[in-house]
Structure formats: structure tokens, C-alpha cells
Write a structure and sequence with these properties.
12 helices; six-stranded parallel β-sheet; alpha/beta; Rossmann fold; about 350 residues; 18 strands
């Protein structure tokens, strides 16, 4: 192992570049992971553009969707061995004594810091992660799919935990980005009819949503579409994954009385409309953020058994050096999801 490595570093707002940085050293309770695959998230692209709405500890290596092989153990690590295949949760720093952490909801700990913005992430040859964050993965689960356990867990938490979609429920997902498509996939496995709403320019993404079990619409008003379902009162559940203010207003119009809206998409825009439809319908609106241990274990089981097939959303796999092309093509919706393999040249 060399002393330095290439890493994709967000050095300041709107500045991302491939830099040579020191190989990190694991602390007593940490594991050094040789990164075999790391997914590009919309949040990485937001930081590249400087359009994010969360604090970043500059300079910071990007990347929070990753899997790899254990390369070195901290002196107090007992649950893993060198050579183990693992994926890592994103809550890199938490207060383990906080009320949320002690409830098992460490993803909601106010002091939480994640990979790629709060601490250095995995768009590099190596990354350190706390032992408590790691999950074993089976030998037959390819790393380019295992690395996407994280966005799958975001979707699982939004649809199956927070919204609690049930068999037979009609679900509208607004926004066919990677998280929206994965939310639709979870709803298809858990609920009844699933509709993904997008714009005409989302044609490629909507085709992938169809491959993963959803009906799709590009109508200007998805409310008109859902009025033809069932008794015409609206859908049981709406997942807003678009991250813009206007879509929450659509969600309030589309949800049925006593229904549930889950907002998973980030967006700093102010709301300039009344919340009265929510009151009139006695509907529930909730946010959904991140995930925790049982969610990850369930998603890994779904990936391992083939219950959840990620092949349709992985548009491209590339070495770390091709990061900029992958960022641009995801940003322009040419790719649904791109995955980088930092160790690609070493594996060939």
C-alpha cells in the first residue's frame, strides 16, 4: 500500500477535482476499506455545482454510497477481518449517547456527520469507516450493486418505514430521479398500483421506472391521472422525491383524505401556497431522512436474493478518472446512475 492515493475532493464551493491525498489511517474502532465501487449521488452533483443546502467541511472527499474490501483493522475492531466484503452506512460521526442514537435512530442525531460532506468519503482508493457502520455482503453480490445499498435504504426508509405503504395501496411518486425510481420499486414490492410522475424530458428515466414495475405519466397535472384510480378520491400515499417546492403542492392535491405524503427530496425553495388542503383532508405529511441498521440489513437481503434488481438503473460503470463525464451525464439525465470503481486499474 502506498502512502498517497487519488481522491475526488470538493475543495471549496463549485470546485471539485482529482487530487493526490494521504491514505487515511484507521482509528482504534475504525476499519480501512479498499473501495471497490462508489455510486454518484445527486448530492455529489449538487456539491459540484455549489447548489447544495447543507454545510460542507471543506476540503472533503466526495462519496457516500460505497462498498469494498477490509484492508486494515483498528486495534479495537472485533467483528470484521481483513479481506471481508462490506458496505458502509453513512452516519460516520454520531453522538452515541444522544437521545436519538440511544433509540436506534442515530440517523436523526443532530450532531450526525456523513461521508462526503462532514468527513472524507469514498471517491478514493481507500476510506476509513467506523466498525459500527459496516455490514457484511455475500460473495455473489457485485460491488457495483452493493454500493447502491445506501440509496436503496433511503427509498426503503421513505416508503416502507415512514410511509408504511401496504399491499393494495395506490402510490404516486413525484420525480423520476434515482431515489424516486427506487421508491417506486419499493412501493411496487410493498403496495398496489404505483405511478411515477415526471416531465417530458424524463423519458429515459420513466422507461426505467416502468422496467422496475411502475406506471408512468408526463401529464402537466398528475392529479388528473390519479383521479381515474379507484374511487377517485386520490392515492393512499405520495412520495415527493423531486426536491422542488411546487411538487409538494401537487402532492397535497393528489393524496386522498387520511392519506400520507412523504417528502424525501431536498430543496431550499420557499413554499408560497396554502397548506389548507392538508388540514381539510386530515392527511399526514412527513420528512424522511437517511436510514439505520435494520433498514440496511433488509435491503442487503433484498439485493442478495434478487428481490430487488438494480441492473436497470446502473447506466455506466467507470474508473475514478472518468468522474467528470459521469457527473455531467447524470446531471443531464443521460445516465440514471453511474458507479465509479477507484481500484479498477489495480484489479485488471
Amino acid at each position: 500500500m502506498t502512502d498517497s492515493m487519488p481522491a475526488l475532493v470538493n475543495t471549496e464551493p463549485e470546485t471539485v477535482s482529482l487530487e493526490e491525498v494521504p491514505v487515511p489511517e484507521p482509528g482504534p474502532e475504525d476499519v480501512l476499506i479498499e473501495v471497490r465501487a462508489v455510486g454518484i449521488c445527486g448530492s455529489d452533483i449538487h456539491q459540484w455545482h455549489g447548489s447544495h443546502s447543507w454545510p460542507v467541511e471543506y476540503p472533503c472527499t466526495l462519496g457516500h454510497e460505497f462498498g469494498g474490501v477490509v484492508a486494515e483493522l483498528g486495534e479495537d475492531v472485533t467483528s470484521f477481518d481483513v479481506g471481508d466484503r462490506v458496505v458502509s452506512e453513512t452516519a460516520a460521526v454520531i453522538d452515541e449517547d444522544s437521545p436519538m442514537s440511544r433509540q436506534g435512530l442515530y440517523n436523526l442525531d443532530p450532531d450526525r456527520k456523513g461521508f462526503g460532506y462532514g468527513v472524507d468519503g469514498a471517491m478514493a482508493h481507500y476510506v476509513t469507516a467506523p466498525e459500527r457502520c459496516l455490514h457484511d455482503i455475500p460473495d455473489d453480490l457485485a460491488f457495483e450493486y452493493a454500493a447502491l445499498t445506501e440509496p436503496c435504504s433511503v427509498a426503503y426508509n421513505a416508503v416502507c418505514v415512514n410511509n408504511d405503504v401496504n399491499p393494495g395501496d395506490d402510490v404516486l411518486v413525484i420525480g423520476p430521479g434515482p431515489i424516486g425510481i427506487l421508491c417506486a420499486a419499493m412501493a411496487s414490492l410493498s403496495g398496489g398500483r404505483v405511478i411515477v410522475s415526471g416531465l417530458p424530458e424524463d423519458e429515459r428515466r420513466l422507461e426505467v421506472a416502468k422496467e422496475m414495475g411502475a406506471a408512468v405519466t408526463t401529464t402537466d397535472d398528475p392529479v388528473e391521472y390519479v383521479e381515474d384510480l379507484g374511487d377517485g378520491l386520490g392515492v393512499d400515499a405520495v412520495v415527493d422525491s423531486a426536491g422542488v417546492s411546487a411538487t409538494l403542492e401537487v402532492a397535497m392535491d393528489a393524496v386522498r383524505p387520511d392519506g400520507t405524503i412523504t417528502k424525501v427530496g431536498w430543496g431550499p425553495e420557499p413554499m408560497e401556497y396554502s397548506m389548507d388542503p392538508l388540514v381539510q383532508k386530515a392527511a399526514t405529511i412527513e420528512g424522511s431522512f437517511s436510514h439505520n441498521w435494520p433498514v440496511w440489513e433488509n435491503v442487503i437481503s433484498m439485493l442478495s436474493t434478487g428481490q430487488l434488481d438494480l441492473e436497470p438503473i446502473v447506466s455506466h460503470v467507470a474508473p475514478l478518472e472518468e468522474w467528470e463525464s459521469c457527473f455531467r451525464k447524470m446531471d443531464e439525465s443521460e445516465y440514471i446512475k453511474a458507479v465509479l470503481k477507484p481500484q479498477e486499474s489495480q484489479l485488471e
